[in-house]
């Protein structure tokens, strides 16, 4: 009878722990939808993707030209970069230089993670 009471108490307690751990794991997946492999591949390609941390962005693109708070959502930070649009910079071909178009990139961070990447070519 004593053993039965322990099992009855252990069952709900163990179930409660599993539910809490499962919810925590699901919450972490939702806040960073980009798999680690995609982030690593983007960093090797000198690119920025949603889900990257601030330190990863700085490692790839360096310090931003400016950092602002979003006027509509003060907790969101916007980092701006002036970079080549797509891959590369200026390319030399013989004596002439081909100029690659540039863009202003706006990276929006909610906390420590990139939540959006926008580019305005100029």
Write structural notes for this entry.
By secondary structure, the chain is an alpha+beta fold. Helix content is 39%, strand content 32%. The protein folds into two domains: 1-31; 35-121, Beta-lactamase Inhibitory Protein, Chain:B, domain 1. A hairpin with a 2-residue loop joins strand 3 (90-93) and strand 4. The relative contact order is 0.13. The model is unreliable at 9-30 and 88-93 (pLDDT under 50).
Which key terms come to mind for this protein?
122 residues; alpha+beta; Beta-lactamase Inhibitory Protein, Chain:B, domain 1; 4-stranded antiparallel β-sheet; two-stranded antiparallel sheet; 3 helices
User: Average pLDDT, to the nearest integer?
Assistant: 77
Distance between the termini: 79 Å
Helix run count:
3
Our estimate of the beta-strand percent is 25-35%
Major beta sheet summary: 4 strands, antiparallel
Task: Describe the SSE topology.
Blueprint: H1 2-31, H2 36-44, H3 54-61, E1 66-69, E2 76-84, E3 90-93, E4 96-99, E5 102-110, E6 113-121
Antiparallel strand pairs: 1-2, 2-5, 3-4, 5-6
Brief rundown of the structure:
It contains 3 helices and 6 strands. It has 122 residues and is an alpha+beta fold.
């Amino acid at each position: 009878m004593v053993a039965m009471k322990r099992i009855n108490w252990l069952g709900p307690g163990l179930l409660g722990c599993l539910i809490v751990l499962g919810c925590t794991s699901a919450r972490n997946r939702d806040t960073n939808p980009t798999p680690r492999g995609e982030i690593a591949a983007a960093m090797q390609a000198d690119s920025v993707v949603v889900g990257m941390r601030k330190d990863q962005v700085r490692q790839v693109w360096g310090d931003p030209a400016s950092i602002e708070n979003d006027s509509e959502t003060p907790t969101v930070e916007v980092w701006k970069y002036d970079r080549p649009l797509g891959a590369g910079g200026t390319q030399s071909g013989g004596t002439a230089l081909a100029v690659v178009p540039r863009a202003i990139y706006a990276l929006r961070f909610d906390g420590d993670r990139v939540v959006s990447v926008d580019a305005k070519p100029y």
